[in-house]
Amino acid sequence: MLEAARAAEEGWYWMRLLHTSDWHLGHTLYDVSREAEHAAFLDWLLVTLEAESVDALLIAGDIFDTANPSAEAQAAWYHFIARVRRKLHKLDVVVIGGNHDSAARLDAPDPLFAALGVRVVGGLPRAQGSLDFERLLVPLHDSRGRVKAWVAAVPYLRPSDLPMVQTEGDRLIEGVREVYGLTLESARRRKQSGQALVAMGHCYMTGAELSLLSERKILGGNQHALPVDLFPADVAYAALGHLHKAQRVGGHEGVRYSGSPIPLSLSEAHYRHQVLLVELDGEGLGTVRPLSVPRTAEMLRVPAREAVPLEEVLEQLAALPALEPDMPERNRPYLEVCVSLPRPEPLLRRKVEAVLEGKAARLVKLTPSYTGTGHALAETQPGISLRERTPEEVFKARYARDYQEPMAPALLESFHTLLTAVQEDAS
Domain Calcineurin-like phosphoesterase spans what residues (predicted)? Predict the structure, then answer.
């Protein structure tokens, strides 16, 4: 009992991690830059890391929105890392690449990051044909410099990263299982008694909810969602990235998506955008506490639910708050307008924009739906533009147009393989 009290007094059992992911620096919402919102988030994050006495920052992929990010997005990333190191000398920082990131681009500054004590694993590293555990495994230290945990930092796994596994099951899933299994086993050999085992991944897990308008289905499609038993019971915490809605996986307290810090599509406006403050208790999980990220700009929809006739829409728009002279551009709400029309209205945008003159809200999406199709108004849903459809949806729609028989699963899998190759070609 005395030893336990002394250990607790010295802070032996507890350490704090902050889990975040899916920043998507460089993102635009209908051609509107999110640079100011990201800057506000990074400012808040830096303050939070210090205020909460965080020992390690875990960033689980999709630092950038594209594999070829703008100079401004890259500058924001490097500037944040520099500020962290200047202000928080002892903070461990571990970063993995996501499916939106270029693995090569993230890994290129490794000599500089290593000198700063920052571990970035953009792509799956190998040394002489085998997994490079020296890069995949990262010790985490408390404020006194003691190792309290080991992180298995596995980046987004592309199909070409996976070993050829002889199995009667799904080859891709079993290949992922082997990569995580070997990495975690190597971490077990390194960690000592009292040190926790932590995993990081950028993937789509079964039992998780996907935001279709801004998240690609990865690893070969929705049918390749990974099982939660990828992380055995001795993994105290699994810090995941890819899904923008913060959530537990399969009800497991220690297997979590932190979600994106800002809404990345209009459909994500109702999400609780947050980071996760994780406390490790020795080798196990103590607590997980969500910290809400302040919303810089709200997202509005007029009408709030189903589309209504143009006259009603214009009345609701006229009632929106006026633009205050001192309101910064980054604080102006984004606005989606949905209108029910009996026929095409050539002057629709002009009429809507005229009413919005002098209003705080900025129009980013105008969606008409038409009632002259034989459907009741309640059954009519606003249309989805091509840019909001996933490649899989477009492929299925084209197939359904040209062929009567159902699509064979093998054809869909081949499409996903080709899609992945095209998406990764930019990396």
Answer: 15-245
